[in-house]
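Troubleshooting entry. The earlier prediction with 2-amino-3-ketobutyric acid gave an output that would not parse, so I re-checked the input for stray whitespace and re-submitted. Clean input:
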Amino acid sequence: MKKILFTGCGGQIGSELTLAFRKIYGNDNVIASDLSTKVCPDLLNSGPFVQLDVLDTRLLAETIDKYEIDGIVHLAAILSAVGEKNPQLAWNVNINGTVNVFEVARAKKIKQVLVPSSIAAFGPDTPRVMTPQSTILHPTTMYGVTKVALELLGDYYNLKYDMDIRGLRYPGVISHKTQPGGGTTDYAVAIYFDAVKKGAYECFLREDTMLPMIYMPDCLKATIELFQADKSRLQNATGYNLAAFSVTPKEMVESIQKVIPDFKISYAPDYRQEIADSWPDSIDDKEARAEWDWKPDYDLDAMTLDIIKEIRLK
Ligand code: NAD
Ligand code: AKB
């Protein structure tokens, strides 16, 4: 692959994944784009940036021609909590934006498209513990509905147009560089910042809400590994289950208190509790392990040590 376009590069994942791709493929070969121009300076300073709305099909096609793009990492999306406040916006960006990307990719014969799915593709009637790869996909959020639809759409394009569309069902991603963009797992980032900066945090989920999570270095590693994987091995291309560890807010507090013993927590569950309650406790990712050798490096305590050290340096 010669030139890769990133959409939604300014978000929590894009702000790190785009730079990781630039390290591998070269700064000028990875074109960053976002609707917003308020992206981190590292992205603007290290390579090309285009202000691009994924709903603007003409500019999307022009950008692909101008930079001779042959791979796309499509990250532009509306996440679960913002999506429940504005489901029509979530449908428009997540579905119409993705259809635009797939259609332009089809017309321009793009070699590969990677678009993330989410644990939000599962719903309350999915088996909650060690949720299998192939299972009931019946979400109760608009965000989840869009994730199921784009997995199926990716399968359709792969089958009918012989394309190479890949995706992973990310768990909640925890990081310290860029704040998350309005999801249900955002508490797991805010808790670390408030633990370091204020010594206390009010959590919007109940203390016993178990959710699958992943630390950003593992999220980057998984995405790069899937992007580079041998296509002939991929039997579940558009929506791989991906797991690192599962955790409740209470367990996260206990992990933080090993480093910051005085850290105080309080709980005030809000509308996001219902979303979290519809998602699995834990994920079985054996297909990702078998088909592209996925294996995480970080468990909860290893992540806690690293993220607190990084936030203290800020
Ligand atoms: P984010 O909300 O942090 O960033 C999304 C980016 O998309 C933002 O920079 C925003 O400006 C941009 N955007 C929104 N509308 C756009 C449009 N019309 N055109 C172009 N850009 C637009 O999201 P993220 O956390 O970086 O997520 C990236 C992908 O990973 C998404 O598909 C998301 O569903 C998926 N995912 C994320 C997580 C997580 O915990 N962060 C978990 C599961 C799946
Ligand atoms: C969200 O909470 O919406 C995201 C996700 C798990 O997809 N972090």
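This one parsed fine. DSSP finds twelve helices and 14 strands in the chain.
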